[in-house]
Structures are given as structure tokens and as C-alpha cells.
Design goal:
By secondary structure, the chain is α+β, with helices and mostly antiparallel strands. It has a domain of about 110 residues: Distorted Sandwich (Glucose Permease (Domain IIA)), CATH 2.70.70.10. The chain is built from 6 helices and 10 strands; from the N terminus they run αααααβαβββββββββ.
Length: about 290
Amino acid sequence: MMEQGSGIKGRRRERIRSLLDEQTEAVPLPLYSLNEDTAGFKEWGQPERREPVNEPDPEKLWKQNRGGWMDEEDGGEGGRPRFTAGFVRRAVASVLVFGAVWGIFLAREPWAVRAQAFITDALSNDMDFTAAQVWYETHFNGAPSFIPIFGEEEVPAQKVSASHNLSAPLEGSILRSFADTLYGVEIMPSADSSGSVAVKSVDTGRVLSVSKEAQGGIRIVIRHTGSLTAEYGHLTGTRLSADDWVESGDTVGWMQETGDGATPLLFFAVMKDKTYIDPAEVVSFD
């Protein structure tokens, strides 16, 4: 009986040992595991501390990669866009457009005539932005601020340097015209002039020179406004000297009667841009 009981106990112990071994092998792995740097119990409940992340500066990144982006746009060759390639493309496009317009103006077809009229109108007339301004005001309650011409009040144009007729140097008539000399005119004083005849400045200006003529008279050269230079010749006397300033109507000099009672003729010439012109074009003679 004792041997039978001990055999049963032995079998039970073997059975229990085998069950324990099976459970040990079937134990699943833990679903969650703690990291090695898990905070201790003293830090629980405190806000989580995160290290600042250094993000790249977009402007600096753009400057660094700008060359690469430009290379992609330009075919990937060189650090900067190729000037020659761009110039060639623009030149070819310009030649094509010019050739097309030239061909249209050579054609005599009805469609070509209409195209010619359209091109001529587009190149000769100013563009009217009124319709565009009305559309913007209707849909956007105002004109766009990035177009300066919208919303501006029209200011009448004023011509600052308007040309004007100069006053005559003296009262008289032209005895020798510009066509005879191609240099200047000779003016005879009016018949009621007697004794000394005063010669006036035709406009504001600066005296360039005062010199003696070969015939014995005095010649004065004055630089006037509007790129005009006037010469007053055959004068008997003057009080002006180089670099003097005169106003319109100021006395330039005078002409005195000769021994036979005749008054000399006034020589008057006008130069514009180093070319002599007819004084009658800029001076009103009676």
C-alpha cells in the first residue's frame, strides 16, 4: 500500500511539474514596456519638458538653394541664367513678330486690310482704361491700388517751354532778306527815326562777345533763351561788355547818323543749334 501511495504521489508531482513547464512556455510577452529614461515617481504630474527644435530659417534656405532653383529653370547649367540663351530667344521672337507684321502689311487680302487697320490703331491711339476702371469699381468697389493711373484726377498739361515770337530789335523794315545773304538780314530804321537809333534786345540773354567789325562798326553776340544766339551788327556804340545780362527790350547799343545824314542799316542774324536761320521765323517785323 505504501509503495502504491508513493507511486501515485510521484505521478502527481510529475504531472504538476509538466503543467508548470507548459505554463512557463505559454506566458505571453508584456503588452507595454517602460523606456529606460522613464521619469521617476518624483517627476510624475509635472509638465512634460521638451527640448527646443531648431527649425531652419526659410530665408536662409532660399538664399542657399536659389542657385539650384535657377539652374532648374535654366536647364541645370551654370549658377546663373544664361544671358545668351535668353537674348537669342527674345531676338528670334522679335524677328518672327516683325516678319508677321511686315507680311500683313504687304498682303492685300480683306483680312490683311482689317489687321493693318487694327495694328495701326493700336500703335497710334492711347489705350483707354475707362472701361477697365468701371469694371473694377463695379465688382471690387473701387479701382485697384496697384495701378497708379486708376483714380487719379486728370491734370491739364502745361507746356513750360512754349515757343514765342521775339520782339523786333528796332522799328523798321527788312531791306535785305535772309535769302539774299543766307546769314542774316539788314533792317532799315523807320522813316521817322532821326539822330540816334536805339537797338533793343529781342529777348533775355547773356552777352557772349563785343567786337569790332571790319567796316568799323560794333557787333554784339548775345545768347538768348530757347537755344537761340543773336548777332547785332553795324552798331555805332554800346555800353555792354562780355558776360553782361540783358532783358527783353533792354538797349543793346545805338546807331548814329553818318556825315551825309543817313542812318546805317542794322545787321541782325539768329543762330539755332549752330545753324543760321531766317530771323523772320522767330522775330515779328512790321
